[in-house]
Amino acid sequence: AQKVTQAQTEISVVEKEDVTLDCVYETRDTTYYLFWYKQPPSGELVFLIRRNSFDEQNEISGRYSWNFQKSTSSFNFTITASQVVDSAVYFCALIGGAAGNKLTFGGGTRVLVKP
Amino acid sequence: GAVVSQHPSWVICKSGTSVKIECRSLDFQATTMFWYRQFPKQSLMLMATSNEGSKATYEQGVEKDKFLINHASLTLSTLTVTSAHPEDSSFYICSAAQGFGEQYFGPGTRLTVT
Q1: Which of B33, B45, B32 is nearest to B91 (CA)?
Q2: Please, are residues A37 and A93 in contact by the beta-carbon 8 Å criterion?
Q3: Measured between alpha carbons, how far is residue A44 from residues A21, A40, A95 in Å?
Q4: Is A91 within 8 Å of B46 when comparing Cβ atoms?
Q5: Does B113 lie at the interface with A, CB-CB under 8 angstroms?
Q6: Smallest Cβ distance to B91: which of A43, A100, A101?
C-alpha cells in the first residue's frame, strides 16, 4: 500500500521568511513518481513539480526548491523569501507503478504568509 | 499544458434531487479520468477511476449507485450525484490522463445540498 504523510498541518510565517514543507512517503514500488501541488483559496490544483524515483537531483525553480532523498523516503519542498501570494494548501502526492496512475495524496499543509 | 474543464463550477440543489457534473479534456484525449472529493480542510480522496468505454472502478466505501460515473468519450466524463443529501456537499474535482501519463486537474465543482 502507498502512503504519503505531511506531518505539518499548518505553517504560519511572516513575509520574506523561508518555509519548508515536509513530505514522507511509503511505497513498495521501485518505480514511482512524486508530485507537489498548490491549492490556492480558489480550489484549483496547480501542478508544481514531478520527480521520478530514479532522479534524486534536487531542483530549483525560482523561489521554489525540492529536496528528494530516497534514503529517508522524503521529498521536501522549500519556499524561499515567501510572499503573501504563496498562502495556500500544498499537497505532496505519489504514483507507484503497481497502482497504475492512481495518485495518493498527503493530508496537505496549509501555509499562511503574513505581510 | 493540457486543459481540463468542469461544469458547473458551483451548484446548489435541494435534498433528494440529482446533480450532474461534467469533466472535459479540452485539448487532448483522456483515456482515464479520475473523480475526487474534498471536504473542507481535508485532502483529496479518490472516489473512482473511469476508463473510456468501460465501467468505472470505485474506491472502497464509495457507493457506485449513488455516484454514477459515465465516461462516454475520450474527452468527457460525468459524475451524477443521485438523491443528494446535505452530507454530499463537498468540492468535487476531476482529473484526466492519457494512459499512464500525468494527471491534469479540473478547477473543481462546489456542491451544496440544502
Answers
A1: B45
A2: yes
A3: 20, 7, 20
A4: no
A5: no
A6: A43
User: What confidence tier does A94 reach under pLDDT thresholds 50, 70, 90?
Assistant: very high
Supply the pLDDT for residue B98: 78
Q: Does B46 touch chain A (CB under 8 A)?
A: yes
pLDDT of residue B94 exceeding 90: yes
pLDDT in tens, A67-82: 999 999 999 999 999 9
Residue A98's pLDDT is: 65
pLDDT band at B26 (very low <50, low <70, confident <90, very high): very high
Across the interface, of B43, B49, B102, the residue whose CB is closest to A91 is B43
Query: Chain A within 8 Å of B86 (Cβ-Cβ)?
Result: no
Q: Is the CB of residue B42 less than 8 Å away from at least one CB of chain A?
A: yes
What is the distance between the alpha carbons of residues B17 and B66, in angstroms, rounded to a whole number?
A: 11
pLDDT of B100 higher than 90? no
Residue A99: what pLDDT? 63
Task: Tell me the C-alpha distance between B89 and B46, whole Å.
Answer: 16
Cell of A24: 514522507
If phi > 0 it is left, if psi is from -120 to 50 it is alpha, else beta; for residue B2 that is: beta
Q: Which amino acid is at A13?
A: V
